């Protein structure tokens, strides 16, 4: 029998020490359900050290992300306080294994959301929307994994940067965006790449989290998923994403 508690400890240690680990599926395949069980157990270890869950991130909500990673099922992970990086600030490269960045849309929850809701119902429970970037970091060697692996690794959740908050009725269905590193465009796309409308990812977050008995609480953040493929980060990088009508989100990578 697969020792899920042991795998959770391995995943937690890899994230805590920023050291890559072999894929779990190299030795024994994990089902997606087992992956979520490992994720929950490893996050319990993190919370026990004083970190706090502050939201949910969705993954593989765009074709660009699915194609880049070769996986096509939507996944979710837990965001914690310690993953929040300051907009315009400098991230510590040493906290990450092989980080990548991707443009996203963030939602701030105003009213409790649990279970099956429509995108419209989900939008009506929101206090604000913001342009954002997620800093993903697989803890697996070579950033390679199957579905069970990545879910067990908290869906590569590692860091995120959020720009200015806008009113909840701000139209973010189809906004052009350009992500640049050191002034060179590395990804160009639209928020429409996120399930045709990022509000669908918000509804999916409420639904998928509920399958683990979790609800979206007032004050929680939801990341809707990368709109484009992710780009690798290196020490010294300056990262900037311009979002049509929502302004710019930036951060630097420390050496
Ligand atoms: C998995 C996480 C996917 C997204 O926005 O699609 C994700 C990964 O690509 O490492 O965060
Ligand atoms: Mg993402």
Automatic annotation (TrEMBL):
Q: Which Pfam families match?
A: FAA_hydrolase
The family database entries (InterPro entries) matched by this protein are listed as: Fumarylacetoacetase-like_C, Fumarylacetoacetase_C_sf, Hydratase-Decarb/MhpD_sf
Q: Which domain of life is it from?
A: Bacteria
Q: Which UniProt keywords apply?
A: Lyase
Q: Name one GO molecular function term.
A: 2-oxopent-4-enoate hydratase activity
Which spans are transmembrane here? Answer: none
Give the UniProt entry's GO cellular component terms.
cytoplasm
Record's protein name: 4-oxalocrotonate decarboxylase
Positions of the Fumarylacetoacetase-like C-terminal domain: 98-253
Q: What is the lineage of its organism?
A: Bacteria, Pseudomonadati, Pseudomonadota, Alphaproteobacteria, Rhodobacterales
């Amino acid at each position: 029998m697969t020792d899920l508690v042991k795998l959770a400890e391995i995943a937690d240690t890899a994230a805590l020490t920023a050291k890559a680990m072999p894929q779990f599926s190299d030795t024994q395949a994990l089902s997606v359900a087992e992956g979520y069980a490992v994720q929950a157990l490893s996050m319990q270890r993190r919370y026990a050290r004083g970190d706090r869950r502050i939201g949910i991130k969705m993954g593989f909500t765009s074709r660009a992300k699915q194609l880049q990673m070769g996986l096509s099922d939507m996944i979710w992970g837990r965001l914690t306080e310690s993953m929040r990086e300051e907009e315009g600030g400098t991230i510590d490269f040493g906290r990450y294994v092989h980080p990548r960045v991707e443009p996203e849309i963030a939602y701030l929850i105003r009213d409790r959301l649990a279970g099956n809701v429509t995108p419209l119902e989900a939008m009506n429970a929101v206090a604000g929307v913001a342009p954002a970037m997620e800093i993903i970091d697989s803890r697996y060697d070579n950033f390679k994994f199957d579905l069970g692996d990545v879910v067990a690794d908290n869906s590569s959740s590692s860091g995120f940067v959020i720009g200015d908050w806008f009113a909840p009725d701000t139209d973010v269905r189809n906004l052009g965006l350009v992500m640049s590193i050191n002034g060179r465009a590395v990804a160009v796309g639209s928020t429409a790449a996120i399930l045709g409308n990022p509000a669908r990812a918000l509804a999916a977050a409420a639904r998928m989290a509920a399958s683990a008995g979790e609800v979206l609480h007032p004050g929680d953040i939801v990341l809707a998923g990368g709109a484009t493929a992710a780009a690798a980060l290196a020490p010294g990088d300056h990262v900037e994403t311009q979002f049509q009508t929502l302004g710019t989100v930036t951060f630097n990578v420390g050496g």
